[in-house]
Amino acid sequence: MAQTSHRSSAATDRGAFPARGHDHGLCVEDALAAAAEQCRRRGVRLTALRRRVLELVWLRHAPVGAYAVLEHLHRDGRRAAPPTVYRALDFLVAHGLVHRVESLNAYVGCADPGRPHAGQFLICGGCGTAAELVAPDVTAAIATACDDAGFVARHVTLEVLGTCPACRRSGAGEDRDNDV
Question: Rounded to whole angstroms, how far apart are CA atoms 115 and 111?
Answer without folding.
Answer: 10
